[in-house]
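Can you give me the bound-state structure? Components:
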Amino acid sequence: MPTTEVKNDHIEEVKDLVEAGRENEAAALLGELHASDIGRIIAALEEDNAIRVFKLLEPEEASLVLLEVDERRRKALISSITSEELIDVVHEMETDDAADVISELPVEDAKQVLDGIDKHESIAVQKLLVFPEDTAGGKMQAELASVIETASVEETIEEVRKKAHDIDNISNVFVVDREGRLKGAVPLDKLILAYPETPIISITNRDTLTVRTDMDQEEVAKLFQKYDLISVPVVDHDGRLVGRITVDDIVDVLEDEIFEDFYKMAGLNIESRALDPAGRSIRMRAPWLMLNLCTAAVSASVVKLFEGTIEQLVLLAVLMPIVAGMGGNAATQTITVIVRALALGEINFKNARWVLMKEATVGLANGFLTGGIAGLIAYLLGANIMVGLLLFLAMTANMMIAGLIGSLIPLVLKRFKVDPAISSSIFVTASTDIGGFFTFLGLASIFMKMGLL
Amino acid sequence: MPTTEVKNDHIEEVKDLVEAGRENEAAALLGELHASDIGRIIAALEEDNAIRVFKLLEPEEASLVLLEVDERRRKALISSITSEELIDVVHEMETDDAADVISELPVEDAKQVLDGIDKHESIAVQKLLVFPEDTAGGKMQAELASVIETASVEETIEEVRKKAHDIDNISNVFVVDREGRLKGAVPLDKLILAYPETPIISITNRDTLTVRTDMDQEEVAKLFQKYDLISVPVVDHDGRLVGRITVDDIVDVLEDEIFEDFYKMAGLNIESRALDPAGRSIRMRAPWLMLNLCTAAVSASVVKLFEGTIEQLVLLAVLMPIVAGMGGNAATQTITVIVRALALGEINFKNARWVLMKEATVGLANGFLTGGIAGLIAYLLGANIMVGLLLFLAMTANMMIAGLIGSLIPLVLKRFKVDPAISSSIFVTASTDIGGFFTFLGLASIFMKMGLL
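Here's the bound-state model for the whole set.
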């Protein structure tokens, strides 16, 4: 059984071999590995070595590896081979993967490749190229088995025979009418059990779930998950069968959608990766940090309002970060739970109000608890009892605010069809900072005016 | 085509109907919906209404719905029906789902159900019950099509005929020897194309990827993703075929693993949900917040060290949250990227050092940038130029620390086989708070000693 992860010494080994110019041995070693393992090795190596290793691969391996590495590494690898070699590599790909790769090429190279691969493939790929990558049309592959509704079981099996070689996991044969409109699908097990002369239409499952080329990939993914699909036919606006999407193309979509939520919460572009060059990471993260600087400035200006208060009792400056920080943590817990629930569709407008009140309650309760402890400790450490009370009150208030804001912002964004994950930490923690400083220092100045401090 | 999400008026509608005692109409409405839609409705309703709706369902629908709702809601629904009804419901389930549900029942009820369902099913389920839920054994189903290696294609098709009714998407027939040890698998399309008298072994794919009952579900999920599997056979320690896992059981595992990472980062138990009762949420989140209180106390004590410094220049108390906050945000970006990369296996010990240096560089650069701007603005707003310089230096230093700590902690935890996500925000932000206060206030006191402030 293949191993689940690349042993690092493989990376080391391959690296050493290519650097020592012992290409043949490297090639031999790679020959024993699965393409996705080779992909990881190539992703982990520095570019020059990655290219050397890539050049050792057969077109078929190379075609698989290209799909395993990220876009920038792919660009580097592609530009390292001749257009003839690239044509051989693309020829090995399924149409959907070929389309993805070609869509990343400069127009000129794309033309060359499309002219280079065989006519049928080229036409199929060009059809796919018109669809945005994040739609059903962009995800689908042209490879599928289909027969006309008047066909017999025998003729259908003949179609399977024709396609079996170049299509992985044919699970259904699709049935269409003269105009190519989808009538339904026949699962292979049904096909196996039917008599050769049976008309295919009589064993066709007519309420086959279908998606249209322009459906968003996230929706497609939700359908796969909801109805436990293995593959789904894709039709155009006239209901004509144009392709199929298989579950393996969808798993990554599902994962990326989740990562994307949390990326947005951290102010990251989904494209940014740990292995990006530093320059790129700096550029991609800077704008967000700028925005952070603005919100930080706002909270600072709140503190500035109370400079006088702090002057009278510097201990306040010592304690205020606790109030703000605890609010931020409570808010992060709330927002994480909410964003997940929204992603899974657990929150609807029926229960949204309930969720809001609940999160406020949870914040209030935990604020009461942790605030009480904090206040007590402050007092035991010799702070004026009024300072302890102050800490207690401010933390309780601020953590309730945290629960409220932490659920309100994503829900409101969702209501207005904005991605709730955008409501990311930043605005929420900004509000808990502001809320924390304001409640704590505000109460303090009141206490002072009342002569309690 | 089924809709991708439940319209809220459905929830409203169903709720109103059951509350108005118009059960029949509610049942009719539900009849038109897919089980997963009904599941969402039942998940969204208050418990008493959820139960009323659940009681309207046929055993088959009910069996599907039970799998759509979370554990606590499931408990409530199950306890609302008689053990006879429960037996009918469980009877409708696939063995793996039945095992999951039964494993949640009190021993007594579990016994009753196991005695109630038919003998074969009961034995199959009991076999599954021995495996931990998060292993291949716990995920697999006993339903599969298999033949002995001496069988012919014709006999194999006969096996498919027998199983076709109670097994969804048979994609392979598994081939075993006399002792039941797995020899390989035959995909249905190969089976269709073979002649009836052909010995099955001659078209058997012998290097079928296989998992053992005790493999962790996360590893199984990674295999499915890596090798684009539709289903995989599960064998015991002696290589005997005991079940199969299909991709639809795996998609949720993949998703949960990701959510879990970010949940841990926010100090949340994967079990906590937005729709949990407040009391439960309070209990589940409190311990984490307590831990936060401790780290917050530490950072406060750092500020305390510099009370004297602040006394001399209260403006420092105004600006210090900016330094700490920006560090926190930079750290969150870093840790999010790292945790993802570790989850996807992009980071190995070969490139870990590089990643570390890179994140430090990114932090340094963005600290230099944002710190410069912050310092300039402070100066333009009338602060002493030395204060501006101070802000600039402290932010640069602290954001470099953020990049360093934000990548170091998860990498070190990974190194020691601890889940890197645990390195959650908390410790990282604690260090950026401490780092921020220390660098900023520390430098300030030095500046003062040097008479610069």
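A couple of observations. Residues 102 and 199 of chain B are 41 Å apart (CA to CA). Confidence is low (pLDDT under 50) at residues 1-7 of chain B.
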